[in-house]
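Justification of computing resources. Each target in the renewal requires a structure prediction run like the one illustrated here; the chain below, 285 residues long, is used simply to show the kind of job we budget for.
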Amino acid sequence: MILRVTFFALMALGLLGLGFIGYASTRPPPVSAAAAAARIAPVTSAVLVAAHDLPAGTLLKPADLVSKQIPRNSIPTDATMDTEEERRDLYGAMVRRSMVSGEMIHLSDALRPGDHGFLAAVLKGNMRAVTVGVDAITGTAGLIWPGDRVDLILTQVIPDQTLPIGRRVVAETVVSDVRVIAIDQRMVEGAANSTATPEARTVTLEVNESEAQGVQVAVRLGKLSLSVRPADGGSDPKLAGRPVGTTWASDISPALGSDRGPPPPPPARSIKVWQGTDDGKDFKF
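Resulting structure tokens:
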């Protein structure tokens, strides 16, 4: 009787062991914590946010935008996605309201070049907008963006052959420390999405009424170029309040001279020759 009970007990243990082995072989492998988190992590997409605090009225530059990944199911319908087309569309756009660093940029937050009322919204106070043509070189090779502050320099050749050669080429600053509000034709035609770079470029500047008249005269006189000012608005205090001077060709190249006539002839050299007791004679050469 005892042997029979022992036999059945061993049989039961054996069947239990076989069942455990079968269960272990069919059980899926354990999932790591990282893999489990990855399974439940939401899908994200990149949106454009403010790279730093942006006051209302800022004209956006590439440095003002940064990409941020957020869950796709929490992206509002009017968010600006981080795509090449939407980035390019925002360059030069005006921020309607103040934004803090990291804040998402919505479609309604920016007034884009080409939108109705863009120019009127950008201009401050009693200012005017004037557009001048510059080429790729005099326009600082595409390195100027809306919102930059620049000087407008006029270079002209005076076709008066009676003037000294050093007074026939002159450069002057027409307007100083003015804001760029548009580049090329993006302001009026919305051509921000154009990838072609034309030879001639146009730059629209924000000036006061008298400066606007001066710029229109300068357009007729000679070649215009732009000089970018520091982003911090700093200037040399020693030059504060001084009028902008005129630079002549002779100021840059002293070899051209200015009011001086032709160079004087070299001094004559001479020798004296004595023959016998006669007085010496001077020979110049």
